[in-house]
Structures are given as C-alpha cells and as structure tokens.
Amino acid sequence: xxxxxxxxxxxxxxxxxxxxxxxxxxxxxxxxxxxxxxxxxxxxxxxxxxxxxxxxxxxxxxxxxxxxxxxxxxxxxxxxxxxxxxxxxxxxxxxxxxxxxxxxxxxxxxxxxxxxxxxxxxxxxxxxxxxxxxxxxxxxxxxxxxxxxxxxxxxxxxxxxxxxxxxxxxxxxxxxxxxxxxxxxxxxxxxxxxxxxxxxxxxxxxxxxxxxxxxxxxxxxxxxxxxxxxxxxxxxxxxxxxxxxxxxxxxxxxxxxxxxxxxxxxxxxxxxxxxxxxxxxxxxxxxxxxxxxxxxxxxxxxxxx
Length: 305
Hints:
CATH class of the largest domain: Alpha Beta
Order of helices and strands: EHEEHEHHEHEEHEEEHEEHEEHH
Radius of gyration: 19 Å
CATH architecture of the largest domain: 3-Layer(aba) Sandwich
Structural class: alpha/beta
CATH superfamily of the largest domain: NAD(P)-binding Rossmann-like Domain
Oligomer: single chain
C-alpha cells in the first residue's frame, strides 16, 4: 500500500533526518520548504499551501515548519507567530479545503511547559503550560489549535511534545552544536582554547535526532488522533554536563567562560519528560546515548571546518 508523506520544513535539522527515516520505511516522501532545493512551500502563503496539498493529497503530513530558536522569538516575535501559528492555520485550512483526512503529526515542544515547579518533574502531558518565551507561547497556541481542528472537523492530528533533540546537522545557534563547533575550531587552531557559553545550570532531557524522527514515524502509525504525547529520554542532564561530554571527546584541552550575549531574558530551568504514555503506545525506546549524540555532532563539524 502506498504511503504518501508530506513534510513541511523538510530542509531543517529534523526534516533532513525524517526524510531518511521515512524513505527507509517505504514512504513516498514529498519534502517541502521555503528554500530552492525542495518543493517550494512557504507555510505563511495559504494559496501555495493549498496548491501543494491539492496536488499531492498526502496520506500523512509531518508538520515541522517553524522558527524554532528560542532567543529569536524575543527578537522577532511577530515572525515567530506568523510561521508557527498562522502557518499551522494555513495547513489545517488547506487540508480541510482539499476534503482529505490525512494523519497529521505536529511537532509541538517541551518549551510549552515553561516554568515547571520542582514537584512536577518528570513532566506529564497533563502538566500546566506556563511558557516562558514567545516561542513557547506560539507552540502552545499551535498545540491547542490542533486540538480544536480535531474536535471540530475530525482531523486526525497527533500532537507530539518533543523534548530537546540534538545531533548530526544541528545548527550552530543551539548550545550542544555550538559547543561542538567551538571545540572543533579549537582543535583546528581557528579559535583560542576557550569555549564561551550561556547558562550551564539548566537541566534538559536530550534525545538523539535519529531516535526522535523514528518516534515521529511511530506516532503517525500507532498513536491516537486528538491525543498529545511527550517524547523524551526520561534522563536529565545539565548543560554543564553536555559541555563536559564535549570536553571528554575533544582532541584538545580547553577552558570555558560565560558570554553574556548567550544568556536569555528568561530561562526554563528544568525540562524532563515523562514519556510513558508514548512508550506504552508505540514500544519506542531511545537507541542512542548523550555520548553518541555528542560524537555525531563533533564528527559533523570536523567534516565541515
């Protein structure tokens, strides 16, 4: 049976990995994005979204298109809401207009939880949403919007709240990739032996991107429309532990120091997933460790610098 899958935001970090994951599992993949290397579809442009949905008529949609770097959301909140929320409205309306009913996975975020109290971790799907950034608010709004379209129109939308996912190909703006890039620059004599960083005390639940895209595929195959699922390893690490893991696998020694420009106006201190609901539904378990993830990221930068 043919499985036609459309991906929005397919040229991004996760999208590139998801293309491979779906192709390896017999999906006919239709990757879209705003750049010229894939099928051009800007989710802000409703007319174009409707044309592509009408043309391809997918069985599955993986909605990844987003402005996902949290600090950018303070600098350009209007654009973040245009892409993350209006883009989702456009997608849902295009599907409704086409009179099709594909299974839709929307990539929500653990940033929706925001201010998590000490007695609330690990975080369940029922935890209150208290986002601490415009990005987190935009994702929470998208999440709720998806539920409205499920309840109102019977759309088969599955909401996945992914916790931090990193690895090969992650953009340098993100702390894990930033640390790896700086370490490789030091290895190659391109930077003095000091890694600059922001807050190291935040605690995060890290999943390798290869495990995350497998989870996204399993979500559309096995999860229930209308439901929301946390996806994460269930293990928390401080950002300092991530830096120390980079230090462990670096080929040279380095010091580190804080860079005020890398500090956020407000920081979420603890994000740790209770992903039992998703694991029980799909049988998913992470296959890669934090060390695997760091090594893959270092390899990526060693090949590019």
